[in-house]
Write a structure and sequence with these properties.
Keywords: Lipid metabolism, Methyltransferase, S-adenosyl-L-methionine, Transferase
Number of domains: 2
CATH superfamily of the largest domain: Vaccinia Virus protein VP39
Structural class: alpha/beta
Largest sheet: 9 strands, mixed
Distance between the termini: 24 Å
GO molecular function, one term: methyltransferase activity
Family: Belongs to the CFA/CMAS family.
Radius of gyration: 18 Å
Domain Methyltransferase type: 99-200
CATH class of the largest domain: Alpha Beta
Protein name: Methyltransferase
Strand content: 15-25%
């Protein structure tokens, strides 16, 4: 049985009423998020600025909360390990160069940094608060000799990164918080920074019904929408069926450049 099932329309009133009746203890937290959403949308019209403010609010509670609604340390470690084991199982080698989009406080990044050769990990995030927490993780894990790069980003054009440099680009729980124009910006530019044979893995909240969002924080897409959007920029996108067997609510896709169809790392 699949661990991941496509979501129904969570923005629909009927769904919200059913959810509230099943989980009355979660209603106050959702109400607080709704108030925050309304306030932040009045202040920030740009989605990146809006979500940076969301991250700052969550990080004020805990760094773990800012990279997932469940703030438990155990869940933080488990999900990071799952990401790491999956990519290593798909051919991630120490000599590869890796870019992690939305690196957060290095939930998985700490494992990638330890696995990769020194200087081969590059993490970007929109939140300065969470990048400071990432530095704390580096110190706690004694990873300073691996010389990882951590950078603040305002967009997904990757303009400050070199051509054909990264064997693996990775984005976990990024597109699940991104409107379609942000995803399109990423697709328009990620091919330039992929090394020959490289791939880009990303997770997303999947629906096979009506595409929707909840509180401008959580976005749900059809697989076909993302596949067709990637093709617009000369990218092949395929659904990763083996990820569906893992205990995670999001689905995963892998993007390669059309020219690299037959020589992908870890294929």
């Amino acid at each position: 049985m699949r661990a991941t099932e496509p979501a129904g329309n969570r923005s629909a009133l009927a769904h919200q009423v059913r959810y509230a009746l099943r989980h009355p203890e979660r209603v106050p937290a959702h109400a607080r998020r709704a108030v925050r959403d309304a306030w932040l949308r009045l202040r920030y019209r740009d989605h990146i600025a809006y979500y940076r403010a969301v991250m700052a609010s969550d990080a004020a509670r805990s760094a773990e909360a800012a990279v997932g609604h469940n703030p438990s340390r155990e869940a933080w470690e488990r999900i990071g390990r799952m990401q790491f084991d999956y990519l290593v199982g798909h051919g991630l080698q120490p000599h590869h160069r890796m870019l992690e989009i939305g690196c957060g406080n290095l939930r998985a990044g700490r494992l990638f940094i330890d696995h990769l050769d020194a200087g081969h990990y590059y993490g970007i995030d929109i939140s300065p608060h969470i990048l400071l927490a990432a530095q704390d993780t580096l110190v706690a894990e004694k990873l300073q000799p691996k010389l990882p790069y951590l950078a603040l980003a305002d967009d997904l054009t990757f303009a400050f990164l070199p051509d054909a440099h990264f064997d693996v680009v990775h984005a976990h729980s990024v597109f699940s918080h991104s409107p379609l124009h942000v995803i399109e910006e990423c697709f328009a530019h990620v091919g330039r920074i992929l090394a020959p044979g490289g791939f880009f893995d990303f997770t997303f909240d999947r629906t096979e019904g009506e595409e929707h969002h909840v509180l401008h924080e959580d976005f749900y897409y059809r697989t076909a929408t993302l596949t067709e959007l990637a093709a617009k920029y000369g990218l092949d996108a395929r659904f990763m069926d083996d990820w569906e067997q893992l205990p995670h609510r999001q689905s995963k896709m892998r993007v390669t450049t059309t020219a690299d169809r037959a020589r992908t790392v870890g294929a």
